[in-house]
Write a sequence for this structure.
């Protein structure tokens, strides 16, 4: 979906069986905004990286879990043209994986590209 011919919006529902990465191809100066929240499960890890780690969601002080977050960043020549949004499913204390579904929305310039994992039902 496009907004005013300048911005694109991508909404994705992700069922996490293992870690999943979404790749963004951006030009220096491009700004990205977004958010995610858990539809199912009680914790998830989230990181944004370019050439190095740029952002990592921090656990809630009370629960110790990450269940949602907002993010924004601006692409830079130092970080390169490829940016990765990585989701890592949470684990219980007994190391069992938590069944997790994440809703993600990303707003980015129409000149950028988003590559996400595809699945069929």
């Amino acid at each position: 979906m496009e907004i005013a011919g300048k911005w694109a919006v991508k909404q994705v529902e992700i069922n996490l069986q293992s870690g999943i990465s979404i790749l963004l191809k951006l030009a220096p100066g491009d700004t990205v905004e977004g958010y995610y929240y858990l539809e199912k499960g009680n914790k998830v890890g989230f990181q944004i990286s370019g050439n190095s780690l740029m952002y990592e969601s921090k656990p809630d002080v009370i629960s110790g879990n990450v269940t949602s977050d907002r993010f924004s960043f601006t692409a830079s020549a130092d970080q390169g043209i490829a940016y990765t949004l990585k989701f890592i499913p949470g684990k219980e204390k007994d190391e069992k994986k938590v069944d997790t579904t994440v809703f993600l929305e990303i707003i980015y310039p129409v000149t950028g590209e988003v590559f996400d994992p595809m699945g069929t039902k």
